[in-house]
Write a structure and sequence with these properties.
Shape: globular
Number of strands: 17
Strand content: 15-25%
Radius of gyration: 22 Å
Helix content: 25-40%
Bound molecules: flavin-adenine dinucleotide, (2R)-2-hydroxypentanedioic acid, zinc ion
Low-confidence stretches: none
Distance between the termini: 33 Å
Mean pLDDT: 97
């Protein structure tokens, strides 16, 4: 037995949660689910040479974490790889098992006065391994970058069962190819990540959150240009009336202002010095319709709930078709206007919200599919068909829109070199 018998699940009822993705749109069938408890067990499983689908928290939104319906693949769950290494406060780094959730790592780092640079609403389920495998973004990219920017090194098991490990934590280490960087965003197609070394960021004593109401999205984009000058700006997230209405009617959360407004920008800043006065000064120069400022944790949570509950509210109203796209920031407003004009119809409602600071728009269509329409417009705006969720199974047929034939040929060569028999996450990312 490669792993303890209780960690090999073959019973269909036990397998089911691992075979269905978070959105419910992808339902596959696995030969078995295995839950290794350490790197050696992952390596032994890889050496069997069976098709493997690495899975962390199964919160991915592109169908990459579940098998197809052939029943031939083994789901390799990393959830037992939950070692939390000691936080090194001199280098502000930590090494953790791939199956540690973001929430658990945040608690661990905060106990040492540090924090994780990336944050997202699925924090209590999403794993650090999964976040590296998808190069997750989230709400603080404009200050700290994506998961790639936190990554110092990885340990991973190759398709051959060989283990590669580079966890020394050297900030400067130009000794050839950046293998951690290569695995970041590879969506389980090149190796199974078993441990991760990441950089941490400071926890600042002062934090302020504000919700600003605007006449339209275009005014929010203009406002953001001014707000960017505020030192310590962590987040700039936008929402619109349609989404707020849905979140309110689904969860009964209160209206943030006395009046309803067309567009909202949620901004947050933190620092060693209280950023409230600087933020207020910047806001006073803007054309805003209303402002709510939150300094207490409870008020902050209330404002963030309006934004973070969008995904769950849309899932309950849907299932929605998800289009996680990015376009150059100064073209976000005309881009969204064009999408709404083309997509909204009696058979479809298009919701949109996102990480405005990164030009990342989350389009969620309730009703008929709109793939060709939306990706056609993304292409014309020189955007990306996947800003942060990855390609998975969902966007695989459209990858050629964002990557050239030469780039795809390099992808294929890398895949062939690391996984010559194509056993790692078949059908995901690459055709
Ligand atoms: P999974 O869903 O289990 O897997 C995702 C992919 O990574 C799959 O292809 C899988 O094969 C691969 N993988 C997982 N673990 C490993 C491993 N150890 N080694 C190799 N491959 C592996 N994403 C964002 O970027 N920004 C957001 O703001 C954001 N918000 C979200 C909010 C909600 C409510 C939800 C449900 C999802 C959100 N996501 C967001 C998407 C998701 O949380 C991220 O993609 C996350 O990184 C997935 O982590 P996971 O552990 O759940 O991975
Ligand atoms: C977010 O930013 C996530 O909340 C999910 O990336 C986006 O549900 C979505 O489309
Ligand atoms: Zn997002």
């Amino acid at each position: 037995m490669l792993v303890g018998g209780e960690h090999v699940l073959v019973d269909p009822d036990l397998r089911r949660p691992y075979e269905t993705d978070w959105t419910g749109a992808y339902k596959g069938r696995a030969a078995a689910v295995v839950r290794p408890g350490n790197t050696a067990e992952v390596a032994a499983i890889a050496r069997l040479g069976m098709p493997l689908v690495p899975q962390g928290g199964n919160t991915g939104l592109v169908g990459g974490s579940v098998p197809d319906d052939t029943g031939t693949a083994v789901v390799l769950s990393t959830l037992r790889l939950r070692e939390l290494g000691a936080v090194n406060t001199s280098s502000a780094q930590v090494t953790v098992g791939a199956g540690v959730t973001l929430g658990a790592l945040q608690a661990h780092a905060r106990a040492s006065g540090l924090d994780v640079g990336v944050d997202l609403a699925a924090r209590d389920s999403a794993t650090i391994g999964g976040m590296v495998a998808t190069n997750a973004g989230g709400t603080r990219v404009l200050r700290y970058g994506t998961m790639r920017h936190q990554l110092v090194g990885v340990e991973a098991v190759l398709a051959s069962g060989e283990v590669i490990s580079h966890l020394g934590g050297l900030e400067k280490d130009n000794t050839g190819y950046d293998l951690a960087g290569l695995l970041c965003g590879s969506e389980g197609t090149l190796a199974v990540i078993t441990r991760v070394r990441i950089k941490l960021v400071p926890v600042y004593p002062h934090r302020v959150t504000a919700l600003l109401a605007f006449e339209d999205l275009s005014s929010a984009v203009t406002g953001l240009a001014r707000l960017r000058t505020v030192a310590g700006l962590d987040a700039a997230e936008y929402m619109v009336r349609r989404g707020i209405d849905l979140v309110r009617s689904t969860f009964g959360v209160p209206e943030p202002f006395r009046r309803e407004h067309p567009a909202y920008l949620l901004v947050e800043a933190s620092g060693a010095v209280d950023p409230t006065a600087e933020l207020a000064a910047a806001i006073s120069t803007l054309d805003v319709l209303d402002v709510a400022v939150a300094s207490s944790a409870k008020d902050r949570e209330r404002l963030w709930a309006l934004r973070e509950l969008h995904t769950e509210a849309l899932t309950r109203a849907g299932p929605p078709h998800k289009y996680d796209v990015s376009v150059p920031l100064d073209r976000v407003a005309p881009f969204v206007a064009e999408v709404l004009e083309a997509v909204d119809s009696p058979s479809r409602t298009c919701h949109h919200f996102g990480h405005l600071g990164d030009g990342n728009v989350h389009l969620n269509v309730l009703g008929d599919l709109a793939d060709e329409l939306i990706f056609g417009i993304v292409n014309r705006y020189e955007g990306s068909i996947s800003a942060e969720h990855g390609i998975g199974r969902l966007k695989q047929p459209w990858l050629h829109l964002s990557r050239s034939a030469s780039e795809l040929a390099v992808f294929a060569s890398i895949k062939a070199a690391l996984d010559p028999i194509g056993m790692l996450n078949p059908g995901v990312l690459l055709s």
